[in-house]
Amino acid sequence: MSTQRTYPIDVASIREDFPIxxxxxxxxxxxxxxxxxxxxxxxxxxxxATSQTPRQVVDAIVDYxxxxxxxxxxxxHQLSQEASVAYEAAHDRVAEFINAAGREEIVFxxxxxxxxxxxxxxxxxxxLSPGDSVVTTEMEHHAALVTWQQICKKTGAELRFIRIxxxxxxxxxxxxxxxxDSTKMVSAVHISNTLGTxxxxxxxxxxAHEHDAYAFIDGAQAVPTRxxxxxxxxxxxxxxxxxxxxxxxxIGVLYGKESILESMSPxxxxxxxxxxxxxEESTWEDLPWKFEAGTxxxxxxxxxxxxxDYLEDIGMENVQRHEELLAEYAxxxxxxxxxxxxxxPPGDDRGGLVAFNLEGVHAHDLSSILNDxxxxxxxxxxxxxxxxxxxxxxxxxxxxFYIYNTTEExxxxxxxxxxxxxxxx
Amino acid sequence: xxLGSDMYRQQILDHYKSPRNYGEMExxxxxxxxxxxxxxxxxxxxxxxxxxxxxxxxxxxTGDGCAISQASASMLSERxxxxxxxxxxxxxxxxxxxxxxxxxxxxxxxxxxxxxxxAQDGAKLHNDDIDDLELTNLExxxx
Lengths: 425, 143
Known about the structure:
The complex is a heterodimer. Chain A has helices at about 10-15, 55-70, 80-100, 110-125, 140-155, 170-180, 200-210, 230-235, 260-265, 300-315, 315-335, 365-370, 385-390, 405-425; strands at about 25, 40, 45, 105-110, 135, 160, 185-190, 215-220, 235-240, 250-255, 275, 280-285, 340, 355-360, 375, 380, 395-400. By secondary structure, chain A is an alpha/beta fold. Chain A has 2 domains: about 10-55 and about 315-425, Aspartate Aminotransferase, domain 1 (Alpha-Beta Complex), CATH 3.90.1150.10; about 55-310, Type I PLP-dependent aspartate aminotransferase-like (Major domain) (Aspartate Aminotransferase, domain 2, 3-Layer(aba) Sandwich), CATH 3.40.640.10. Chain A has a 7-stranded mixed β-sheet with strand order 4-10-9-8-7-5-6, with helices on both faces. In chain A, strand 5 (about 135), helix 5 (about 140-155) and strand 6 form a beta-alpha-beta unit. In chain A, helix 2 (about 55-70) runs antiparallel to helix 10 (about 300-315). By secondary structure, chain B is α+β, with helices and mostly antiparallel strands. In chain B, about 40% of the residues lie in helices and about 20% in strands. Chain B has a 4-stranded mixed β-sheet with strand order 3-2-1-4, covered by helices on one side. In chain B, strand 2 (about 40-50) and strand 3 form a beta hairpin. In chain B, helix 5 (about 95-100) packs across helix 6 (about 110-125). The longest helix of chain B is centred in the C-terminal third of the chain and has 18 residues, at about 110-125. Chain B is globular. The interface of A and B includes residues 380, 394 and 395 of A.
C-alpha cells in the first residue's frame, strides 16, 4: 500500500525526541502508562486534540523547576528575577513567532477557549447591545460558538452564521451579506478542526474592517501546523493553545492589537495585574500583565518558548508541507473503497486532519475497532455539534497528523478501517 | 488483541445486524425513550405487562446508534420477557455486560446500559415512582 515517500522533514530523528511514540497499548486503561497487557505499538493520530511533547520541552520544564522555580514580578531575589526574565522572554518569543509587534500584544491564558472568553467578557459584554451583530461561521468550534451565543443572549446582540457550501468552504458572498454596519465582531476559525477547511481569514478581517468591526480568529489548528502572520492577516484578536503545538496543557495565547487591548478593561482582577491599590481605587499594570491576574502560567510559558524553538528549528513551512503530504495520502487511501466519506474540501487544500465516517458503521464502533489496532483517533462531535447536525451525522472519526507521523501509520489506520468494514459487512 | 475485537464478537454483530423484537408496539402498557446525545444513540422501549401488572409479557424496541447500544437493546428485549418489574429494577451494569458476553471499555458502558436504563425509567414512570422524566439521558448525570 505504502509507496516510498520523501518527507520534507527528518521524521525518523524527530521521533527520537518523543519517548511516548515508543509506547505499546491494548491493556488495562486504569493503569496510567505502559503496563504488562500493553502489547501493540501505538499509532498516535489524535494531534488535533493534543500533540505529544518532545524531550526539549520537558527539559525546559525540568530546568525551570530544578533550577529557578520562583514567582514572577514580585521578588527582588535572584530566582524571581531569572523566572521573570524567562517568562517575559516567552512573550517576546511568541510575538516574534506570529509576527506581533511585541510582548504588549501577547496575553498568556489557559487555552484558546479562555482567550475567546477574555475577549467576550472584557470587550463583548461592555460593547455589545441590542441592534449590534456578531458574525461567525457554521463550522465554529464550541469555544467560539457557545461563547458568542451566550454573550449575545446577555447583551441582546444578534448572532449570525456564515454558511458553508457542499465542500465545507465558507460562502464568502454570504459573509459579505451578513457583515454589515450593525456588525461589531467577526469571529472565525482559521482552520476547521472538523472539516480541515482553511478559511480566507485575511478577507474576513478586511470585510470586518470595512464595517468598523473587529475580527477574532481562532487559530488553534493553524498556529501548530503552518506559518501564521497576524499582521499580514490583520486580525484584531488571534488565539491558540500551547498543547496542540508540542507545549504543555494549561497555556493559551491571546494576541490582540495593542491599541485595542489598551482600551479594554481587565477580565480578571487581583494580584500581578495592578500598579497601585488603595482601599478605594486601583490602577492597572501595563500590557500584557493587565490581563494576567494572579500567579500566571510561568512553567507553561517557558515550555511554550521551548516548543516554538523546536518547531522553528524544523521550519513552519516544512511542518505545513509534511501535514499536507500526510493529509493527501490519508484522503486517497481512506476513500479508495468509495464507502468512506471525508468531510470538508477534497485534495491538498486542507489542514492536516480528516474527519470521516465508514458507511454502515457508527463512529464509536469504528473508533473502538481502531483502538484495538492501537490507532488513537478521536470519535465524537469534536466540539462542533451544530456542524455535525448540518452534516447529518451524530458523530465522526477524526485522524489528525503531526510532524512525527508517517505514511506507514496511516496504512495502519487504513488497515483498521478495513477490519471494521469486514466485521460489519 | 485488546478490547475492540472482543467487544464485537459474533453475538453482538448478529443482534446489531438482525435486531430482535424491533418495532413499535400497538398498545404497550408503557413506553419510554432515552438517548446518549454525544453518541447519537437513541432507544425507545415498549413494554406490555400481563394482567398482574408485574410480569413482563412482551418487549419491543426501536432505535438508532452504535452496535453496542443497539445489540444491547435487542438482547435485553429477549431477556426481559417473563421477568417481573422487580427483577428488571435489579438489573445492574454487571448483569448487562454478562448478558453481552464481552468486556465493555469504560467509555462505552453508557452505550451498553442505555436500553436497560430506559426500561427501568419507563417502569418507574408507569408506577409513579418518579414523575416527569421526558427523556432518559445517561450523559445528563455527567454534567
